[in-house]
Amino acid sequence: MAVNIRRFTDYLPIAGVRLGVAQSNMRYPERDDMVIIELAEGSQCAGVFTRNAFCAAPVSVCRQHLQHSTPRYLLINTGNANAGTGEQGWQDALQSCQQLAEAGQCAMEQVLPFSTGVIGEPLNMTAFERGIPAALQDLSDDHWDRAAAGIMTTDTVPKGYSQQLVIAGETVTITGLSKGAGMIKPDMATMLGFIATDASIDAVLLQRWCGQLADSSFNRITIDGDTSTNDCCMLIASGRGGLHIDRDDSPGADALFAALKQAFQVLAQAIVRDGEGATKFVTLQVNGAAQPQEALDVAYTVAHSPLVKTAMYASDANWGRILAAVGRAGIDDLQVDQVNIFLNDVQIVENGGRCASYQEEHGAAVLAQAEFLVRIELGRGDCSDTLWTSDLSHEYVSINADYRS
Amino acid sequence: MAVNIRRFTDYLPIAGVRLGVAQSNMRYPERDDMVIIELAEGSQCAGVFTRNAFCAAPVSVCRQHLQHSTPRYLLINTGNANAGTGEQGWQDALQSCQQLAEAGQCAMEQVLPFSTGVIGEPLNMTAFERGIPAALQDLSDDHWDRAAAGIMTTDTVPKGYSQQLVIAGETVTITGLSKGAGMIKPDMATMLGFIATDASIDAVLLQRWCGQLADSSFNRITIDGDTSTNDCCMLIASGRGGLHIDRDDSPGADALFAALKQAFQVLAQAIVRDGEGATKFVTLQVNGAAQPQEALDVAYTVAHSPLVKTAMYASDANWGRILAAVGRAGIDDLQVDQVNIFLNDVQIVENGGRCASYQEEHGAAVLAQAEFLVRIELGRGDCSDTLWTSDLSHEYVSINADYRS
């Protein structure tokens, strides 16, 4: 199942960025499962990574390489996450970088490795011997679509985004990919995002922006609350276009940031739309919080409530479940009679109780739609937050319970 | 579904405690749905209540009455939670107390009200007119079994416990009831526990013990992580037996506390065994934590992970999912290579990776059982915690999504 998402195909190339795809036989034969993204000399690259303490070996290597060099290649394999693999996993990740560095004539530290797939099994190193030369051979600035398909695990749809706009008189292109659908079927993991622009962005600024952009997109989605060991999101600035951004107040910086934010959010939301067993795409907005963290805590508590999620699956406007989730979100001095809750424009809770004008069929009509907004007003202050989530369906249980048995 | 639980019938009466059951037609006709527990003069009663900010009107009334008087009656109705009902709900709860106080000839503050059932609908007050006289008429020290059935909502089994033992040369009896199966089907809520002993216990000590006992039992179970608006747990000491406990170091205090702890834990675990859609009863033990809270955080993160819960449902010893949940439990300086995980005696994770000796069929054999232990060793210190949870099945989704639609 997937909610209002179709394969994106209108990719615009990014000058300075080429992509190559290959069949490496990492785990399954005859599928595109290895992707190389080549960055031209002078490109900048920033990243944010999983906060899971059990982060996979390629994530640790990636972090370290990013600190000590300017990347030339991103090497992505699907089928094996190289997670929970200890010292051997670390050595294997380094060796895959070494192989690409030799073939691509750069330093090993200029290669960033990304793995997604089964946890706890050793990497198939012969797959790199086969896949790296083939993917290098395949490099083209026109292969975004095949790359989006080549990094999928149990995604049902390749996920992409592309936009061209004029900022401060310069034409700027933004193109990106993402993958992920939860922590996915038994032993499968990882959300990945790769977003590139031909603008030139100062390296320190790029890293800060990457964090801020991920916080408003990939860090604001939840399907099942389970953080993978392999999550990575990379922002690439090839610098081949005419726009140069050195500081937050450079001409065009605001517009570029806004355009990148849209790219990040569309790609993040695509993961929710393709979420495991998802039949609903839900925007959860919390307003009137006293602190930013408070808004986020309430939003996550509601988004992770199995009772709220099953009610959404059933198109059941069960305001008691939403209310109970708000009530246990950890706000000690919550004034319950200040709380108002809306489904789109239908008010279901007024001053902490059932809204007098509310009729069940109005709530049910909103929830029968594939996409809707749940808006929670806390009446405590000016802080807000928004996140995106999916429902909890029979299909979710089937995907996660039945597959291996 | 329910895991290794059958109707308990061997109740021993508690001198000074009588129970009456009636059909009040609160929501459904012709079912026992109103219970009165009468406490003889001189009984002490302590309670712990939901921490949900949207606590129901009867919970607020109960808390207040408990502070200002010595209870003579507990009045419990099922079918309607009187939650999310605002000022009217508060007045209705008071009025139900007033009705019982008049009929039972005590002060209104000596009645404690408890409600469980639908959220957001006004109480059916004529049900009390019918139910209170009938339940008073029915009072007997032998009606624990019917009372256990009379407080059920969607529980599949009435839940009880009874034990007699000799402490410090005195015969002591402990008998209790509980109900709950999650936040239960659409709009139904509440876990309730009532435990009585004929020992005499100092009132201040009783309240402290009640909190400590609930923390090691009802506050250590989780089915779906959703806290109800109506949760209450009451500890009653009728004082009609020969054992008198004034202080923690009174003769027999340790033995009585231990016996009460067993009663609390059996009744709490009964709720998990009867959990919505439960097919597995899982004990989650976290050892080697640096702080008590850390052990609890890890245990809850694992217990609430939909991926871990669906894997248990599938009898799939998916150690990667458990590992990933431990990794996102918020321990910043977790040394992943110190982590070991066991299913009963089968080690699945050794030093943060797959245990070398582990074979998948051994893990699957453990998880194929209806009850098993997941033991997580963090290797950071001496703190431990244990909680009990159930799996996430198709039946859970059906109960929570399909019922109202």
TrEMBL record, chains A, B:
- The residues that hold substrate are 153, 179, 190, 276, 400, 405
* Primary localization: cytoplasm
Keywords per UniProt: Acyltransferase, Amino-acid biosynthesis, Arginine biosynthesis, Autocatalytic cleavage, Cytoplasm, Multifunctional enzyme, Transferase
Q: Which GO terms describe its biological process?
A: L-arginine biosynthetic process; ornithine biosynthetic process
EC number, as in UniProt:
2.3.1.35, 2.3.1.1
Catalytic machinery residues: 190 (nucleophile)
What GO molecular function annotations does the UniProt record carry, in alphabetical order? Answer: L-glutamate N-acetyltransferase activity; L-glutamate N-acetyltransferase activity, acting on acetyl-L-ornithine as donor
Enumerate the catalysed reactions.
N(2)-acetyl-L-ornithine + L-glutamate = N-acetyl-L-glutamate + L-ornithine; L-glutamate + acetyl-CoA = N-acetyl-L-glutamate + CoA + H(+)
- Please give the SUPFAM superfamilies that the UniProt record associates with this protein: DmpA/ArgJ-like
Q: Which GO terms describe its cellular component?
A: cytoplasm
- Locate the site labelled Involved in the stabilization of negative charge on the oxyanion by the formation of the oxyanion hole: 116-117
Please state where this protein is localized.
Cytoplasm
Site description Cleavage, residues in chain = 189-190
EC supergroup of this enzyme? transferase
Q: Which pathway does it take part in?
A: Amino-acid biosynthesis; L-arginine biosynthesis; N(2)-acetyl-L-ornithine from L-glutamate: step 1/4; Amino-acid biosynthesis; L-arginine biosynthesis; L-ornithine and N-acetyl-L-glutamate from L-glutamate and N(2)-acetyl-L-ornithine (cyclic): step 1/1
Q: Write out the similarity annotation.
A: Belongs to the ArgJ family.
The protein's assembly and partners: Heterotetramer of two alpha and two beta chains.
Q: Which HAMAP family match?
A: ArgJ
**PANTHER family to which the protein is assigned, alphabetical:** ARGININE BIOSYNTHESIS BIFUNCTIONAL PROTEIN ARGJ (PTHR23100), ARGININE BIOSYNTHESIS BIFUNCTIONAL PROTEIN ARGJ, MITOCHONDRIAL (PTHR23100:SF0)
Give the protein's biological function: Catalyzes two activities which are involved in the cyclic version of arginine biosynthesis: the synthesis of N-acetylglutamate from glutamate and acetyl-CoA as the acetyl donor, and of ornithine by transacetylation between N(2)-acetylornithine and glutamate.
What is the designated name of this protein?
A: Arginine biosynthesis bifunctional protein ArgJ
Can you name the source organism? Bacterioplanes sanyensis
Source gene? argJ
